[in-house]
Amino acid sequence: MSVIPDAPDPFARDRGGPAQPLLSVSGLIKHFPVRKAGGKKQVVRAVDGVDFEVLKGETLGIVGESGCGKSTTAKLLMGLIERDSGTMLYDGQAIGEHAMPWRAYRRQVQMVFQDSYASLNPRMTVEQSIAFGPKVNGVPNRQAVERARALLARVGLEPKRFAGRYPHEISGGQRQRVNIARSLALEPRLVLLDEAVSALDKSVEAQVLNLLLDLKAEFGLTYIFISHDLNVVRFISDRVMVMYLGRVSEIGPSDTVLDAPAHPYTEALLASMPSLDPDNRTEAALLQGDPPNPIDPPSGCRFHPRCTLAESVCGETEPPLDTVGPLHRVACLARQPGSGHTAAPARALAA
Amino acid sequence: MLLYILKRLVYVTPVAFGVSVVCFLLVHLAPGDPLSAVLPADATQATIDEMRAAYGFDKPLPVQYLIWLWHVLHGDLGVSIATGRPVLSEVSRAVVNSLILASVATVIGFTFGTLFGFVAGYHRNSVADRAASALSVFGVSVPHYWLGMVLVIVFSATLGWLPPTGAGPDGSGNWRPDFDHLRYLILPAVTMSVIPTGIIARTVRALVADILAQDFVEALRAKGMDEFGVFKHVVRNAAPTALAIMGLQLGYLLGGSILVETVFAWPGTGFLLNAAIFQRDLPLLQGSILVLAMFFVVLNLLVDVMQTALDPRIERA
Amino acid sequence: MTAPVTAASVALDGGVLAAEDVVHGPDAAFVPSRGFWGHVGHRLVRDPVAMGAGAVILLVVIIAVLSPWITPMDPYKGSMLRRLKHVGDATYWLGSDELGRDMISRLMLGSRLSLFIGVTPVLIAFVIGSCIGILAGYVGGWTNTILMRTIDVFFAFPSVLLAIALSGALGAGIFNSIVSLTCVFVPQIARVAESVTTGIRKRDYIDAAKLSGASALTIMRVQVLGNVVGPIFVYATSLISVSMILASGLSFLGLGVRPPEPEWGLMLNTLRTAIYVNPVVAALPGLCIFIVSIAFNLFSDGLRAAMEIRQ
After folding, report:
1. What pLDDT sits at residue B93?
2. Which end is more exposed in chain C, N or C (fewer Cβ atoms within 10 Å of the end residue's Cβ)?
């Protein structure tokens, strides 16, 4: 039972079966050239070798401080900026190549932006904005508008009241609902939510999150949920990926990563969050200073200058993403057997 | 700072090159033979060809341009077809006269513009503010050549206080800084100052209002600084932009003086241009425009550098 | 070491429905929306200065259109005996010119050419400049660099100088004066169009449109154009005043309209000799230029203010 007229069954489009990841990314790299004083050319290593998979039907949360490469990753995944290298497979097919050209890919993958106002054309009514996508994909005007109205109703905005409004005439929460409706207008399987609720009031945020969960169940969606808010990520995500300076530092099931983090950075992130429990206030901030400059990242483990567990080996060896538990992988020498770090578990134990 | 100046120079060079191309092409934009003004009507084909070769008009355009540019870079702007004198000497004499007029007009404009701007910025929505904004609309809307005529009608034709035209009592083309010559300067300078007055008043008003609304002014007052102290801070913050606008206005006035100079028969570049156009003296036209445009380019560069030097907020990298 | 994560659960479990967010009420009737231009029009109508200026412009346009049929006398017919009559003359209400032609008739008919040579360059430059600027802004990269650096060259000339240089080189005439003024305004409009478009191009909704699979042309037409035309148009209207002054100025110098056609700048020039005999009549054509120019300026200011809707 779909609210969208003539919507295809999302599962009918499946190719590789439930075990095949919907999206798998490996070796993703994006460096931005910058010119510093003196005309020296340098690069910002915004995304510097990122591997991960998005499983069918899950919500993968991506967290990290600002500047860690979350948003660049999002734009790379959507093809809004071109990747320097790396492969991206959508349901087993290489994106941007013959098997899965960008145009076809984008019909299955859509995105919701953080700034609800900037992502809507101020000269178009809400309905026109939602209907634009279907129209350029060949849906006749009447049906596109019908679909837009049905989606408006589905995201909780009465079409009679809201269809003809302009973005500046509705509230931030309402605008984000419109953006969600627009992202669904092309019937995607994967929706990328880039800080989609970060700018909203807490109470509105909760409603929109619940709406997202409902829509996910109804349309059989898969989400990539980017946020800097760990609470929100914990609420909505099945798995969490933690990024630091353009690399993945930890990835695993939400409960494991957020309750028993294996990477000191994740631990520090969690500890730096304000707590509502007065008996459990953080005494000292574990995360000191700003993240280092991504133009010139530290050698070895990028987190070592801020890490409580740092040893000399951390400044020399770049830690690989290593499995430490079921579905749980960490890039930390202190968790890797035989790494040379004094806190590393013994090789025999791990075997 | 030096690095910044170098960077600006690198940026300005292609613009200057483009300006020279435009000036060069002006002559070739002109309909008909550029030599028609000097050649007798019954000139034979042989004479025409000879003259064309003498002026280099028989070569392909890019070659002509390079030859011309070579001469220009060596200070040779060619010879006026009408007078037979070197273009450079004609232009430099006129530029001095125009510069006197434009500078005086700019100073008048800057004085009154900042005055009105400050009063309006300090007392927003007051009568003074309305008057200042009316003045700035007047300044940019009035046809200055007409304003010049009106001033002549009032102060020369009716009241007889000031001379209507020329640069001095002897009718010579050289202005001197004495009382007699000063009387000739007043009307054209006042006429020309109307535009910069309005523009500077508008800019300074916005600047002052903006600065006064900033947090640091609040902090200064909270600290117990008197109004004069605050005023000094406002001046220091408004000065770079206001001076930059003034510099640019000087350039606009110098380049745009032709209409006012025509009204007052002021022997400057405008007057020269007018003569060049109607005598179809293309080398003179080309030379004057090149000099004026280059002056404007250099002035822009100076204004940029000065503004950067004065305003610590502008990145010098 | 990890703090308990409770903030979200509080917010989420709280489940306080923000009343403003989703409205399903009895008053949920269809609310017609004015749209952007509706708002602008609404605000413009409430601006007395802009409306006054608009009325003046409208009046001049009506006079210009109807002048061949409504002039009280023949604007071309002179009389050597009735030269330079004063304002308030029983026959010549606004006096007569140096050839004894009726001033009011000539001023009325003159509005045609003055408006035409003043407004046309801005209109043409609006079209050409917008195309160049939008293209440069949307495509970016090298196209942008080449186009905008070329435009910088034209900015190296003060506009009066450029207009006179081009007019002087091309020679006198209405067509040439329109061509040279167009060349003056194209770079200015193109620069504004480029900066507006560059600003729009970075907006998320353009990215969103790209994600929907729309072609560059469709995005430009549907998503970009509507957002850039307004600001460019306002800027163009602010140029009309300058253009009127410059166009009449060219005629004043003898580079535009040629006698005996009536045009305000040209009339001002031919009446210059009469300032000692009849100064008021001599100044009249300039007053007309001034009034129309100030009306365009005020109307443009009002339009700009009306478009500054807080978004």
Report:
1. 83
2. C
